[in-house]
Amino acid sequence: MKKQVIKLLATVTFGLVGGFTVSQVNSQAAYKTVSIKKVTKAAYHKASNSGAFYNQAHTKKIVNLKTHPYTTYYVTKEAVMKNGSKKAVFYYAKSASGIGGWVWNKYLTKGKSPFGLKYAKSYLAMDAKTGEVLASHNGNTQRLVASTGKLMTIYLAVQKAEKENAWNKTVSVAGSGLRSMGLSSAVGGFQFKTGHKYTVKQLYDAALIESSNNAAIALGRWVSGSNAKFIKKMNAQAAAWGLSSKTKFVSASGLENDDLSPYGYWASGSYTAGNEVSAKDLATIARKLINDYPDVLKQSKLTSMKTDGQTLTNANRLLKGKTYYSSDLNVDGLKTGYTPRAGLCLVATSQKAGKHRLITVVLNDQNEFTETNSLMKHVYKTADVYK
């Protein structure tokens, strides 16, 4: 009886298919390599979220397959291994970046992995000229979008500034809430100094480049007369463009109401509500902005600038001179965003010489810059319009 218990404790089972137990084993004797041979190199990807790579003796787990959901592995060896009285075929496989080891053959399926992003809950790529969706995952699902929602505010502010030739017009920034917001390390970024006057252009630069929340709210008040009226205008514009009826704006800045409430700018929706927009609708807003007012790209590509003695810093690290810039993609905008509930969000755009402009959106991400690069490269490689 004791011998049986010891034998059971030596093996922790995590898979049983076709009568063969695939286990993490604490004793090399549990797994024996019966035969091994080289095979013609071939591409495989995970068959499900089950399984893991191990060393040949199965004494050490290297990595779970589910942690790299869209990775292609290349099989170069095949072995028959014995566990007790059962035999099964195992593959030795590694990705181009060196991830891999020995894995039961049932956990892989032949062929290169389909494209996908590891972290983003939603993503979408759109042809800026035609509006064609070139790649999408949960692209029609409404999500909190943080400061990427400022693109609607910027569109409506630019629309009025252009129509009325009002770029140099002074905008009221009265109110302790806007001043306090600018001093906050959590929601600030641009300080409204007592006695200073700010133009539409200055507030536009602060909202677009620095992602200043108080500047966005001040622009909204200027456009519609009050914060509440501006939010209604945002929703009316969304409806006029035919965006989803589920897309809702409650904030000119992209902050959620619990962040806005202490400053007096909770205007509609529940205490924790925020702008909820799908990746497709956000790409559509960006497309409208770029096509109707292309000069916005002259500002959105700036990594920094000074206004009213303050340095505005662009958080988009895909821009030229920044950490994740790729000369092959040449990203020249558009808008970053983050709140704890929305996660990392990014609307980006680039254009290859002689080709249509590309717009990408990633929402609720953990690595928005790397994943945007991956999405853009995939679309440029596979979409017919770019071939």
Description:
The protein is α+β, with helices and mostly antiparallel strands. It folds into 2 domains: about 1-110, SH3 type barrels (Roll); about 120-385, DD-peptidase/beta-lactamase superfamily (Beta-lactamase, 3-Layer(aba) Sandwich), CATH 3.40.710. About 25% of the residues lie in helices and about 30% in strands. The chain has 10 helices and 20 strands. It has helices at about 1-10, 150-165, 175-185, 200-210, 215-225, 225-240, 255-260, 280-290, 295-300, 370-380, and strands spanning about 10-15, 20-25, 30-45, 50-55, 60-65, 75-85, 85-95, 100-105, 110, 120-125, 135, 145, 170, 200, 275, 305, 310-315, 330-340, 345-350, 360-365. The strands form 7 sheets. A 5-stranded antiparallel beta sheet has the order 8-7-6-3-9, with no helix packed on it. A hairpin with a 4-residue loop joins strand 7 (about 85-95) and strand 8. Helix 2 (about 150-165) packs parallel to helix 8 (about 280-290). The longest helix has 15 residues, at about 150-165. The chain is elongated and about 85 Å long. The model is unreliable at about 1-20 and about 25-30 (pLDDT under 50).
